[in-house]
């Protein structure tokens, strides 16, 4: 299998730091953009033109790609603004523009003729007929609808073999068809297809029945052991099916959702899928390996969604009991880009030992000095703190997540190394239990 024929791993880039983390943890390409005309306004605000340009340069220096999201739907009054924004993005020389409508495809061709166009999943492409229309318009890649099946992807590829197909394999799912939801707009005025969804589907709801003739309204009792998160879709997790997807030969890019998620998510999820892909090509694929890492992240429960199973073939894609649950681990700290200091993400004290999670291909030196000890146990690296000292020399007994000081390490570590501990230990340090938190403690990895 040549490098050119290998599937691409595409990860989210919510800001410059998360972009760099995703790239260091194994992504071949990342996607993101500024808030203007993006479907992730909140994450887009963390990028301005200068930092996004810096991110593109950082990726290109490492032989990686950046796809620019300009994937909301413009009103008539915004068409000229949209055209100007596309021209600005084109000046940064991203590797593709992600757009959502035929009209914007035409604009992008006119103002950025040298930049490939990728069609957003918002366009709901489910079949070869629609795919061919966009292909004839000059679209190089289609990000297929989340509701599509692998067999339908095979059908599209058989008709248009030169059209690239990109498919989501991990991350948040929308309960509405390809994200075309109006609940947030109705309840809060925040329009999902304009990039400002309030995630109203994640809330618990009570259900009522009203008789207009009698004026009687009564609440419908919930089923025992089933909660009221009636629209709360579980998170997609197709890591166990990466071998099946790659064996089909019809998917060109595996995409991870999550521009608004944490740096830890960006690193760990990207690394898990990097290993799944590489292990498949090496003939050493083992699903449990990747699921163990994915279970460390916060999630709403997992489902393998629709690429492998049709929507009507399953009824377990909603999480009825909770909005979100803890993963098996909590981030304790994040090492800076220079590898010399770390910043606290969770209460850490002198004497604590934390697990070291390295970027893809990185190694670490074993040391034992006045600041701490780095050792290896059963193939995993651990850091034990003997001192917690700021760069300015202030010594601390404990440090909390609100402390933004750069803290010294006992030895240089690879940039963006993650430090983590098990969730029960993290909660205990804060005096919390499952009963005292709104989130579930024990992860339930369904699907």
UniProtKB/TrEMBL annotation:
Source species, domain of life: Bacteria
Species of origin: Sulfurovum riftiae
Similarity-based family: Belongs to the peptidase U32 family.
GO biological process annotation, one example: proteolysis
Keywords recorded for this protein, A-Z: Hydrolase, Protease
Alphabetized PROSITE patterns for the sequence: PEPTIDASE_U32
InterPro entries associated with the record: Peptidase_U32 (IPR001539), RNA/ubiquinone_mod_enzymes (IPR051454)
Coiled coil location: none
Annotated GO MF terms: peptidase activity
Protein name: Protease
Name of one Pfam family that matches: Peptidase_U32
